[in-house]
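Proteins fold reproducibly. Look at a sample protein:
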Amino acid sequence: MKKQKFNLGWLFVHGKEDAAPEEMMKLPEEAFCPVKLPHDWSLDFPFEETAATCGSGGYVTAGIGWYRKSFRADAGKNGQERLFLQFDGVYMLAQVWINGVYLGRHVYGYTPFSWDITELVRAGEENTVLVKVDNSAQPSSRWYSGSGITRDVWMCTAGAAYIPFGGVWLRQDQVDEERALLTVQTRVATGKGQADCPSVFWVETQVWTPDNILCFKESAQRQELLLPRDGTELVFDQKITLEKPVLWDTEHPSLYRVITRVYQDGRLQDQEETLTGLRSAVFCPEQGFLLNGVRTKLNGVCIHHDGGCVGAAVPPAVWERRLEKLREMGVNAVRMSHNPPDPALLDLCDRMGFLVMDEAFDEWRILKGKELGSNTHESRGYSEWFDQCHEEDLRGMLLRDRNHPCVVIWSIGNEVPDQTDPMGCQTARRLKAICRELDGTRAVTQANDQICAEPRAARAEFLEVLDVVGYNYVNRWRTRAETMYDDDRRAHPDWCMIGTENSSLGGRRGVYQMEMTEHAGWWKHPYYSAPVQVGRLLRFTMTHDYVAGDFMWTGVDYLGEANWPDRSSSAGVLDTCGFEKDSFYFYQSIWRRDKPMAHLLPHWNLEEKKGSIVRVLGYTSCETAELFLNGKSYGKKAYSYPDYGMTERYGHFDKYPVPASTDDLFLSWDVPYEPGCIELVGYQDGQEAARHTVHTAGKPAAVRLTCRRSRMRADGLDVAQLEAELVDENGNFCPTAENELHFGVEGPGEIIGVDNGNPSGHESLRADHIHAFSGKAFAVLRSTGAEGTCNVSVYAKGLAQGCTIVYAEK
């Protein structure tokens, strides 16, 4: 189909819960406010402790909203074209009308849906689409869901015979360096708009290499229909062999382009272009995960769907920046927690070379509690709709996502209570069967948090359904804090195992918990001990081949799942602004052994008396590291990862061992506090390879403003992302500064969101100003649609302002 974004020119109004659609169709434009899609209204309102969404949902406003748009369309006027309205995601309970005619309802907020509107559109005249979004049943989510038409909307056109949603499947039957054996299956819908006479249909497929060279062109066997108006769906299968294919992998994510054309009686009816990568992805009990036959450890993170200050309506550029930073950390895999993601995010993962666990549900038939941060509300959830909607939603995810090379495993659920229920295995079998029906090439898992749990554990028959057994918090119970996966490995040597979710270091950027306190919670450790337990599991995962990998919770902080005054979680290695925390460098030191790096913590503007002992941590990928304070050395140290034994003969080492001072995955020094300059120097083969220098900063004197990319498309939707930090008169970063920062722009751009990464911050994220948190703040600049130069500035009272330029280009 020919797809055109349908995101501009919408009107929105919040409330009017009891209004009829006829009333909303007649409501004057002045009663609405203009918006661009995707759109999330929840962050337009203040954070409130009494909000019905509770802490789980981020203490935001949900409720009901109405969207309206007028448009003209020429399609369908000659009876030979079909017109479809497609939504990538609406949270939630969407109802849609065209010209006053009710199209239907879609419940789940994370799956696509569409309608054929050909017969309802008045060609050449003004038409109106009306959408009601109902997110009033609260609390209904264990994290921030957002509210509204939170993903793209498309107007699609095709001929009388067309490829329906998900109608092209590029099944990879066998792929290796020598050849790729593919089956291209194309479904063709016929029916309305067809003549009452026999017709001949066929499909032509073209395959273009990553270098844009045509390597295959062939038509499938023709099929004749005597009465096409009957609405018969035709299926065409084509076998394709490609010699010496260019394989897709995490380092070289090469993409082929497949063009599918549908013909009826020699006339082109529809065309679809699909990008895919050729690769094999196999889980096995002994070697974990194999990508193109090569054992590959999944160095993964879990992510939720929000984008911080832009809420659930996330421009792709926001995710691109986050993924770029996670790649720098060493991440090669992402778990889409706990719902089907925005398809634009999967497109990025295809292009950037990330491996994806694509997850369908957080809830099956048994309700989960969602009252975090409040005891005054009764939970709601997808379990109310599961029996009615799960098959449509799972099929929608599979049909949409199965051509993405990044997707290497399906997850049918997360921590569902059904895992301990006698009937849970039947639900798991049914969901797995749907996966098998629509894609028999990928493994199926479920993220289990009750394996060996007390008092009720996940049932054996439930776990046996899964192709890959997913473990959430594998080291949570009894001796498994030491043995991890090993007990189950001995008991079930035929199981494939993966860490679907395990703890990260997390924490608030620039804030250091000094002691274990009851107020902080038993799961939050002081900064100097937190890496111990996390490192123990990380080391086990990295050194045991049978564990396919791990998805650490989480890659990025997210709104919701918090207790007031917090309104967001601090579990990520990036905060909600996408700024790196210290924990980012802990993982980088292990996952990026190819890159010499050194990082020390805490910062050196501590409220400590001179001479008091401070535990300084060092993260490094180098063989040894040395700590200096004001020029004085506190000694060289090394840790024992990766540790190697002898080779070839007794007493022979490929590289002479470096004496280790710890078995942890980090280094530490006890240092008497003294303001000044503290440095961590990493050495490789006896030579300096990396250095991290931190100065005690003076009072803030200026704001430094940078933009990761200085160009954006002048389409009214693309964004640029601005990073502001406070520095002293010598240019040293001020890690404790909290000055209020004001962002301004002259030119074809507008500030649509601000953030500072503070989980307890209650300032509006929709303003153009915000206080810095731990010395930093962030803003999102959106194109207005015109070309030109945006002169962007940020200022704070009494400080030198920061400036940068962003170009809006067609």
